[in-house]
């Protein structure tokens, strides 16, 4: 039997540290896109709560806690991050395994918001984009999901194939921001 | 330029893809005849004023949106999900 | 010369710099202009057209004359205004538009020829002979006229781009802007206060005005510090707001001091996109000159600029100054000069009713009508009812009044409004949604009025944003009225300049009017008035006043030209910052990328994806050898190719089948679970959009593939069809392209290779052609598809992408042990051309299912996207260009994609065009060159000969028309 080794999307690209800023790869475990069928949003939320302990997040929000999170991921789409999806969820939603489809990066440190301001047109002011807020947007011309995890901490997700470009762009922007600090 | 997404709120135009007049929602039946199909496919108004067109929130939530805009002032007057506009059965 | 005890420069920090090869010294806080004036350098450039000596005229970004080139080599930056270049140690600047030197310029001869070089000169002179324009006239004119030059080398300066958001953007940090920012920020609004200058304060830095008993510059410093300490305020100095755009978006150019820009990793500047819900235009006003004969000599300056040099930089631009104006600004300059101990030779006021209590020679009802001096001002001529008088002076300070900076308010096409009392254009109200003009930009010229206007505008904005505001506290300051009497030009002999940067004189504008270029837009283009980099900031209003006079109209009837961004010149490198390399197009790399590169494969781009072209082996010297070997390898043994890049879309739900029936031409609802079907998608206009496979993994679960390049387009289309046309269908779409690493294993030995890996081997009977299902490789859940794009017995294996790199290495190693190996895009292309399989070279947007011989794939049993339009008679005409294969049968043995087809014997004109070649290659399998293309009525012409012509590449080939499928017509190998 063959033994295939695994490789993460950002293997060899991170960690990147510039001044107080650090960029590391997150290993969120399973990632499953949940797309509720017609009229099943409430039922899916109930099932999600029963099976994984968190209700479905509202638009632009993240629910759950570290290790088991549900991320609003677009119109009629929630990304379950952490646990393997309970089989019962399939009654209410289309399930698509996305575990390997995304590079998940964690940017943290003083000026993290300024770094992202180089890359995305999103309004990331702390008063507008608070902890637990999440948005789908463009990040350095790439489709991305951006979530605030803390005052100076963000989760950034792009397609796996774009990991190298994202890290390159983040690294450049980190250098730019730190140079002014 | 900023555009309102009924789901995500106001966003930068970079997140959107433009896709022509909202007439595209009014697809004729298969047997509607060549004149109806010709209108649907090719004939468009070009108003200096209020117009309704389709935008895809491609770099955002992936919603198709009917945007009501004024081509003369660039004012955006409203936005509705295409799915709801279609369900409501009225696009004009 | 410096004036002891004056100015805000740091005299303990001397700075050495070079101008035109000579070493000078200035101080920290100097601009290049103030330092040059302090060193007595008066001539700093030559004018654009007449090569006239020119000196510093203003103290800001509106400077028309003092354009210099800074730096050298790749970092050389031309056309910088010396008035905005911050002095730094080692600064290396030189003057422009002169040869061989500033003092002795050969093209100064243009000035003698001036009578012939007026407006319209080029249009009238360089008309004949016509062919001379490109070869002789234009290069000549370009060399003679012009400003600085680019280095020609790629710019090493690193700009960056960034986005910022706020409730209120305050444009300009003078007294108005500071008060606007303070009052809105105190109410709780998020404020950005931006100013192009290095320090906040605006005119307060240039005046001796006090606010609440404190010198204005100190007040500004204190207020700016208070603002900067507030968490909801961002003070951005060195940041020019360059444009106002839709929905409260503003462009801004921030530059960095040299020392900061040189830090490792730092950018030299940032191009900002600022989104603001409201804005206050507090951009102040610009002083305008008066046109009189020879008003362009070095030493002739704006009166307000002279005050700025005296008060801010402690520099006097002259030893003996004549001040001339039609308003009180001139008096203020005379007072400041006198107070600083500089000799004021005369204060000349064109207003007959003006009085003066200063102890300087005063001339009311008098005008300056001429100046003298060789390379700089030596004397001025005054004229009044009493006659003419000549005064010695090395500096002439002029004020023709103030133009509010209305530009940004008018960027969305609004026109400014003429105010007859102020003799100035004001921003119209509500010109820009959310913007309010205040202070001097709104025509309030006293300091107190600015403070009050700013406070009110800030409060108004805060209130509109929903914040509670109290009563405004407006500090005390002078509140002098503004009095001005019209004076645009002083009549007389000699040229009187309006636009200094583009060398436009009163005579030029009058000539334009005489030749009937009466519209201000026509006059502008005929004379080039206002078309230089300064966009006529200090000259346009006077020019249109002259035009109004010449055409017998009033100024408001004459109107202004259109205001367009950017307000100040912006380097293209700044606007395009972040848009080179990966910032231009992100790279999409497959999981096999590292292994592929290690094997030396050159990469080509397919959409954003990077894919291997071929895998060279030792001894192979060109791509054809590698490609031929890879093709033979697949046909004879087994090849491995990464096909992850093809789009993969999960389609799930109770109505998945019905949805797919609607988007594909053929039936997908009838597809059995565990089977794959080739599918064709049309656009609604009846032309082919994309093709791919549709596999049914479960009763309610399909997975589609799209072509690599069209993956995004297909997803957009499917979402459109679902959301906008069939929201009633209960179906859900998700892209899974990146979740699975997918590899094609193709060739007679493919099953043997695949079975070596699968935990449970497959057999032909249980897993026939077009089967699909789940599989297990080393305990890992995989998907297996028996599909082929090569015409060989083939599989595609998909595993979770984390295993992609390992599986690719494993597959290639095993294939090599079986006399196979990896193959790239070149071989893939040859394999599919041999089989007549199409790509977007064939389905390029203008071809129909009928054209490619797939008309029967449009199911008659159901409606689908594109079906109605595809049935139009014109799209089913037997004479349409149809897909065929071609092979050379004459002496020339090449077929070129892009070449056109003609009947042998017909002339090669577009009227006789019979079709074109879309794909071509050498087929090692068939042993000859082969092509695919479209030929009129092609399907009925199999066996005929046509002529392939390519005029660009000089190719002329006689071809035989063949059936598109040239290899394994019955598909035995696919099923084998």
CATH homology group of the largest domain in chain C: FAD/NAD(P)-binding domain
Binned strand content of chain C: 25-35%
Q: Which percent range describes the beta-strand content of chain B?
A: 35-45%
Strand order of the largest sheet of chain B: 3-4-5-6
What string gives the helices and strands of chain B in order? EEEHEEEH
The number of helical runs of chain C is 24
Which two chains touch over the largest interface? A-C, 57 and 59 residues
Rounded average pLDDT of chain C: 94
What gross morphology of chain B would you assign?
Answer: globular
| Fourth CATH level, the homologous superfamily of chain B | Folate-binding superfamily
Mean pLDDT of chain B: 93
- The low-pLDDT segments of chain B are none
Overall SS class of chain C: alpha+beta
The CATH top-level class label of the largest domain in chain C: Alpha Beta
Any idea what the radius of gyration of chain C is?
A: 38 Å
- What oligomeric state is this? heterotrimer
Notable features of this structure?
heterotrimer; B: 92 residues; alpha+beta; Folate-binding fold; four-stranded antiparallel sheet; two-stranded antiparallel ribbon; 17% helix; globular; C: 976 residues; Ubiquitin-like (UB roll); FAD/NAD(P)-binding domain; 7 domains; seven-stranded mixed sheet; TrmE/GcvT-like (chain A)
Describe, in plain words, how this protein is organized in 3D.
The complex is a heterotrimer of chains A (181), B (92) and C (976). Chain A is α+β, with helices and mostly antiparallel strands. Chain A has three helices and eleven strands; from the N terminus they run E-E-E-H-E-E-E-E-E-H-E-E-E-H. Chain A has helices at 41-52, 112-117, 163-180; strands at 16-18, 21-25, 30-36, 62-65, 68-74, 77-82, 93-97, 102-108, 134-139, 142-150, 153-159. Chain A starts with 15 loop residues before the first strand and ends with a helix. In chain A, 57% of the residues are buried. The mean pLDDT of chain A is 97. With 92 residues, chain B is an alpha+beta fold. Chain C has 976 residues and is α+β, with helices and mostly antiparallel strands. Chain C is elongated and about 115 Å long. In chain C, helix 5 (175-186) packs parallel to helix 10. Chains in contact: A-B, A-C, B-C. Chains A and C meet through strand 7 and helix 3 of A and strand 8, strand 31, strand 39 and helix 21 of C.
């Amino acid at each position: 039997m063959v033994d295939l080794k695994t490789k993460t999307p950002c293997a060899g690209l991170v960690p990147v540290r510039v001044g107080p800023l650090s960029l590391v790869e997150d290993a969120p475990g399973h990632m499953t896109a949940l797309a509720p069928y017609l009229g099943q949003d409430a039922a899916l939320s109930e099932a999600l709560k029963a099976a994984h302990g968190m209700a479905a997040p509202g638009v632009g929000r993240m629910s759950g806690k570290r290790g088991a999170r549900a991320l609003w991921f677009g119109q009629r789409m929630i990304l379950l991050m952490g646990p393997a999806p309970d089989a019962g969820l399939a009654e209410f939603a289309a399930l698509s395994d996305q575990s390997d489809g995304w590079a998940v990066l964690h940017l943290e440190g003083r000026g993290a918001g300024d770094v992202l301001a180089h890359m995305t047109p999103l309004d990331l002011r702390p008063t507008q984009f608070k902890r637990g807020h999440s948005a789908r947007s463009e990040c350095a011309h790439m489709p991305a999901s951006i979530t605030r995890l803390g005052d100076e901490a963000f989760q950034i997700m792009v397609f796996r194939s774009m990991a190298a470009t994202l890290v390159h762009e983040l690294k450049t922007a980190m250098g730019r921001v730190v140079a002014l600090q | 330029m900023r555009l309102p997404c009924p789901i995500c709120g106001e966003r930068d135009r970079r997140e959107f893809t433009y896709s022509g007049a909202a007439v595209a929602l009014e697809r004729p039946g298969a047997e509607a005849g060549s004149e109806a199909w010709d209108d649907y496919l090719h004939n468009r108004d070009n108003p200096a004023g209020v117009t309704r067109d389709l935008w895809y929130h491609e770099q955002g939530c992936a919603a198709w949106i009917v945007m009501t805009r004024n081509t003369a002032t660039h004012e955006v007057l409203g936005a509705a999900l295409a799915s709801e506009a279609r369900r409501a059965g009225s696009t004009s | 010369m410096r004036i002891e005890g004056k100015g805000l420069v740091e005299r303990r920090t001397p700075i050495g710099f070079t101008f035109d090869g000579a070493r000078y010294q200035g101080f920290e806080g100097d601009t290049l202009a103030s330092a040059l004036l302090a060193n007595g350098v008066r001539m700093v450039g030559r004018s654009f057209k007449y090569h006239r000596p020119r000196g510093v005229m203003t103290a800001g970004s509106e400077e028309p004359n003092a354009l210099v080139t800074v730096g050298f080599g790749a970092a050389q930056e031309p056309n910088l205004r010396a008035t905005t270049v911050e002095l730094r140690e080692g600064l290396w600047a030189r003057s422009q538009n002169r040869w061989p030197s500033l003092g002795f310029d050969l093209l100064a001869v243009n000035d003698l020829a001036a009578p012939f070089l007026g407006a319209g000169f080029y249009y009238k002179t360089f008309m004949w002979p016509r062919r001379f324009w490109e070869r002789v006239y234009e290069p000549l004119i370009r060399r003679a006229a012009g400003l600085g030059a680019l280095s020609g080398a790629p710019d090493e300066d690193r700009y960056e781009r960034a986005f910022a958001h706020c409730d209120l953007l305050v444009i300009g940090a003078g007294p108005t802007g500071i008060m606007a920012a303070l009052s809105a920020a105190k109410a709780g609004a998020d404020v950005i206060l931006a100013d192009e200058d290095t320090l906040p304060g605006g005119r307060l830095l240039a005046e001796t005005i006090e606010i609440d008993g404190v010198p204005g510059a100190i007040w500004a410093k204190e207020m700016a510090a208070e603002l900067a300490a507030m968490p909801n305020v961002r003070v951005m100095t060195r940041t020019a707001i360059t444009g106002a755009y839709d929905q409260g978006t503003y462009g801004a150019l921030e530059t960095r001091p040299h020392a900061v820009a040189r830090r490792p990793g730092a950018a030299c500047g940032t191009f900002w996109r600022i989104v603001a819900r409201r804005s206050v235009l507090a951009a102040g006003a610009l002083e305008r000159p008066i046109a009189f004969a020879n008003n362009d000599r070095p030493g002739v300056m704006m009166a307000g600029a002279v005050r700025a040099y005296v008060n801010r930089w402690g520099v006097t631009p002259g030893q003996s100054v004549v001040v001339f104006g039609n308003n009180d600004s001139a008096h203020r300059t005379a007072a400041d000069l006198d107070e600083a101990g500089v000799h004021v030779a005369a204060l000349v006021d064109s207003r007959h009713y003006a009085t003066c209590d200063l102890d300087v020679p005063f001339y009311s009802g008098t005008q300056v009508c001429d100046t003298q001096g060789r390379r700089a001002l030596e004397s001025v001529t005054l004229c009044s009812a009493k006659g003419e008088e000549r005064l010695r002076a090395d500096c002439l300070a002029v004020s023709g009044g103030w133009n509010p900076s209305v530009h940004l308010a008018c960027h969305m096409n609004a026109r400014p409004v003429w105010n007859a009392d102020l003799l100035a254009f004001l921003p119209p109200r509500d010109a820009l949604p959310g913007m309010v003009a205040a202070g001097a930009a709104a025509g309030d010229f006293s300091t107190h009025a600015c403070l009050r206007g700013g406070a009110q505008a800030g409060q108004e904005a805060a209130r509109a944003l929903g914040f509670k505001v109290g009563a405004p506290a407006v500090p005390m300051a002078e509140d002098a009225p503004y009095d001005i009497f019209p004076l645009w030009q002083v009549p007389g002999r000699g040229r009187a300049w309006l636009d200094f940067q583009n060398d436009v004189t009163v005579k030029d504008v009058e000539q334009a009017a005489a030749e009937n270029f009466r519209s201000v837009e026509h006059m502008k283009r005929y004379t080039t008035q206002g078309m230089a980099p300064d966009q006529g900031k200090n000259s346009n209003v006077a020019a249109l006043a002259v035009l109004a006079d010449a055409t017998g109209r009033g100024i408001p009837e004459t109107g202004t030209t259109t205001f367009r961004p950017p307000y100040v010149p912006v380097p293209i490198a700044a606007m395009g910052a972040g848009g080179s390399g990966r910032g231009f197009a992100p790279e999409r790399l497959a999981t096999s990328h590292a292994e592929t590169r290690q094997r030396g494969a050159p990469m080509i781009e397919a959409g954003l994806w990077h894919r291997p072209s071929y895998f060279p082996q030792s001894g192979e010297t060109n791509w054809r050898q590698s490609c031929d070997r890879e093709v033979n390898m697949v046909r004879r043994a087994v090849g491995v190719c990464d096909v992850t890049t093809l789009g993969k879309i999960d389609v799930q739900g109770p109505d998945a089948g019905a949805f797919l029936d609607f988007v594909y031409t053929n039936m997908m609802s009838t597809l059995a679970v565990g089977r794959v079907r080739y599918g064709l998608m049309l656009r609604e206009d009846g032309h082919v959009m994309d093709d791919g496979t549709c596999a049914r993994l479960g009763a309610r679960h399909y997975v589609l593939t799209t072509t690599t390049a069209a993956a995004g387009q297909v997803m957009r289309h499917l979402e459109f069809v679902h959301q906008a046309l069939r929201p009633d269908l209960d179906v859900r779409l998700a892209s899974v392209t990146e979740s699975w690493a997918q590899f094609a294993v193709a060739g007679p030995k493919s099953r043997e290779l695949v079975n070596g890996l699968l935990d449970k081997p497959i057999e032909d009977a249980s897993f026939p052609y077009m089967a699909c299902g789940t599989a297990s490789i080393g305990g890992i859940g995989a998907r297996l598809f028996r599909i082929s794009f090569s015409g060989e017995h083939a599989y595609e294996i998909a595993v979770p992408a984390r295993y992609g790199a390992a599986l690719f290495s494993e597959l290639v190693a095993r294939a090599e042990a079986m006399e196979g190996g990896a193959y790239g895009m070149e071989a893939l292309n040859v394999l599919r051309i041999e089989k007549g399989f199409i790509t977007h070279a064939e389905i390029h947007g203008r071809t129909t299912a009928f054209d490619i011989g797939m008309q029967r794939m449009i199911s008659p049993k159901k409606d689908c996207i594109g079906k109605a339009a595809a049935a139009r008679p014109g799209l089913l005409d037997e004479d349409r260009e149809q897909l065929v294969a071609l092979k050379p049968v004459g002496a020339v043995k090449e077929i070129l994609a892009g070449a056109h087809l003609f009947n042998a014997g017909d002339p090669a004109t577009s009227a006789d065009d019979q079709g074109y070649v879309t794909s071509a290659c050498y087929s090692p399998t068939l042993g000859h060159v082969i092509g695919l293309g479209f030929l009129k009525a092609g399907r009925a012409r199999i066996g005929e000969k046509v002529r392939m012509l390519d005029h660009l590449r000089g190719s002329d080939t006689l071809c035989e028309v063949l059936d598109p499928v040239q290899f394994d017509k019955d598909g035995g190998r696919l099923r084998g």
